[in-house]
């Protein structure tokens, strides 16, 4: 089933195109909108009136007039001069998401590109032609100029691309082999292709999809730890949470009640209460969920927004130069995402420590069968601690920073791409930390008796054991940690739990 652009896209649509290469098609009504906007641009180009990016230069050169005979050269020069990215290449799935979002934004009918330019971009995406785009160089000013310029280069048949077969080729060769012609950019098209928030939005959207899985999985691994540590079930009582109706807290508490239902390990005991890492799971996990939900609202709105400059309004026969490209809304939301997800890792690491520390668990030190001769899972907690510590640095907000660019014309910038890259790294780290919790909790249940756990936790325990055997003696842990991370990232632990108790909130 094709994903239609020019209508409303969801983050799930974006994920399907980015990860599973679902084909893309232009919605029927979008073609007419594109034609109407293009007609306005062509009339302005012929008129010679000063209109930003059409008959003038860009950025700090906005007051320089461009004669009609130099329009084509100027648009190509804008793309070439702005392709100034550096650093590691963006992963292919992120570039596919960028291509989808750029095509969708153009298809909304406010950018004024020609239909053939839009169709070429769509055809490249469907043919598996992925431009090589460096990850650094955007400050989120006129959007993600440098990364989008590298994307636009490929549309022009310049630069390098990754092909569907997996090889790196010159863009012109890849286009020719796919039966496509490089685009000779016309008036406004270079500016339209490179203005916008598509890099930060693409990276943020993919990070969000993974963060939502990680947040639900944190409830699952938290339930495993609760079983292994004989947690008191009163902390998840429905009445307790009813009188503090924070939405995320309500959802997390409800999940934990369902995940622990039927347990013979979590039960009233002679102590009054548990440590916060257990007792306050709904409150901490819930706050993270609320932060993630806020980020989703902002990013999904941005996915369906027109963010280049200037924007064309055919119904009013006007072109408006403004600042919809400014990445501040997305940058702020992705900073919140990083902070929210980092908190999931922080509390999960504390549960890991409690599982491994005999003073808090009542279990053998570091869950080793023969402590001393064997170190057990001691270093798993070190790894979790290192990732959590790094997240504290990465969670420092990028959106509060600004460095003026373009001769001080762009004197406040969002740093949105940096916020997106940091958020994605935090999510990656937390997937690993939550995986480590699953690994340690499963080992603790070897001593506690997995058969005594709830049906949901038993199902998750079996999912772990299908790929990671119990730790009978010391072995290299790096492979186990990578497998545990993949169980989280691929949603396998979450799926096992939901097969036992139904969809979690």
Question: How do the helices and strands line up, and which of them pair or pack?
Answer:
Elements: E1 3-5, H1 11-20, E2 24-26, H2 28-47, H3 71-82, E3 86-89, H4 92-107, H5 115-126, E4 130-131, E5 134-136, H6 145-155, E6 160-162, E7 168-170, H7 171-177, H8 189-194, H9 198-228, H10 238-242, H11 247-260, H12 276-279, H13 281-303, E8 311-313, E9 318-320, H14 328-356, H15 358-361, H16 378-394, H17 416-448, H18 455-465, H19 478-489, H20 492-501
Description:
This protein has 505 residues and is mostly helical. It has 20 helices and 9 strands. A 3-stranded antiparallel beta sheet has the order 4-6-7. It has a two-stranded parallel sheet with strand order 1-2. The chain has a two-stranded antiparallel ribbon with strand order 3-5. The protein starts with a strand and ends with a helix. The mean pLDDT is 95.
How would a crystallographer describe the biggest sheet? 3 strands, antiparallel
The overall average pLDDT, rounded, is 95
Contiguous low-pLDDT stretches (5 residues minimum) are none
Give the DSSP E fraction (strand runs of 2 or more residues).
5-15%
User: In percent, how helical is the residue content?
Assistant: 55-70%
Helix count equals: 20
Round the Cα radius of gyration to an integer and report it.
26 Å
Enumerate the strands of the largest sheet in spatial order, edge to edge or round the barrel. Answer: 4-6-7
Structural class: mainly alpha
Q: What characteristic shape results from the CA principal axes?
A: elongated
């Amino acid at each position: 089933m094709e994903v239609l652009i020019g209508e409303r896209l969801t983050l799930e649509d974006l994920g399907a195109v980015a990860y599973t290469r679902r084909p893309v098609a232009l919605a029927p009504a979008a073609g007419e909108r594109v034609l109407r906007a293009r007609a306005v641009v062509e009339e302005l180009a012929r008129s010679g009136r000063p209109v930003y990016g059409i008959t003038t230069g860009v950025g700090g050169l906005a007051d320089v007039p461009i004669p009609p005979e130099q329009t084509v050269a100027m648009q190509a020069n804008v793309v070439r001069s702005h392709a100034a990215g550096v650093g590691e290449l963006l992963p292919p799935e992120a570039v596919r998401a960028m291509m989808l979002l750029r095509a969708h934004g153009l298809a909304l009918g406010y950018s004024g590109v020609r239909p053939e330019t839009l169709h070429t971009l769509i055809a490249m995406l469907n043919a598996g032609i992925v431009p090589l785009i460096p990850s650094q160089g955007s400050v989120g000013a006129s959007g993600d100029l440098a990364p989008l310029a590298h994307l636009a280069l490929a549309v022009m048949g310049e630069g390098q691309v990754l092909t569907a077969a997996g090889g790196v080729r010159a863009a012109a060769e890849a286009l020719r082999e796919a039966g496509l012609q490089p685009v000779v950019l016309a008036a406004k098209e270079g500016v339209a292709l490179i203005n916008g928030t598509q890099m930060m939005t693409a990276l943020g959207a993919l990070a969000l999809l993974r963060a939502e899985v990680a947040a639900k999985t944190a409830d699952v691994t938290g339930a495993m730890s609760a079983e292994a540590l004989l947690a008191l079930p009163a902390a998840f009582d429905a009445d307790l949470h009813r009188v503090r109706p924070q939405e995320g807290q309500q959802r997390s508490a409800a999940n934990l009640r369902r995940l622990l239902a039927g347990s013979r390990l979590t039960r009233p005991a002679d102590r009054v209460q548990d440590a916060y890492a257990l007792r306050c799971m709904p409150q901490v996990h819930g706050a993270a969920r609320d932060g993630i939900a806020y980020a989703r609202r902002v990013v999904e709105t941005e996915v369906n927004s027109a963010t280049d400059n200037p924007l064309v309004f055919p119904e009013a026969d006007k072109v408006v130069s403004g600042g919809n490209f400014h990445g501040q809304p997305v940058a702020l939301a992705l900073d919140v995402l990083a902070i929210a997800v980092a908190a999931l890792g922080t509390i999960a690491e504390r549960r890991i420590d409690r599982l491994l520390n005999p003073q808090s668990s009542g279990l053998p030190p570091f869950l080793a069968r023969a402590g001393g001769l064997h170190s057990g899972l001691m270093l798993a907690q070190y790894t979790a601690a290192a990732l959590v510590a790094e997240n504290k640095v990465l969670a420092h907000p990028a959106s509060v920073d600004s460095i003026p660019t373009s001769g001080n014309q762009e004197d406040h910038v969002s740093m949105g791409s940096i916020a997106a890259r940091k958020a994605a790294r935090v999510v990656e780290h937390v997937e690993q930390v939550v995986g480590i919790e699953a690994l340690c909790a499963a080992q603790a249940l070897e001593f506690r008796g997995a058969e005594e756990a709830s049906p949901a936790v038993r199902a998750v325990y079996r999912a772990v054991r299908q790929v990671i055997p119990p730790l009978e003696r010391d072995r290299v842990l790096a492979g186990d940690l990578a497998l545990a991370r993949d169980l989280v990232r691929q949603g396998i632990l979450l799926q096992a739990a939901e097969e036992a108790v139904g969809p979690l909130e």
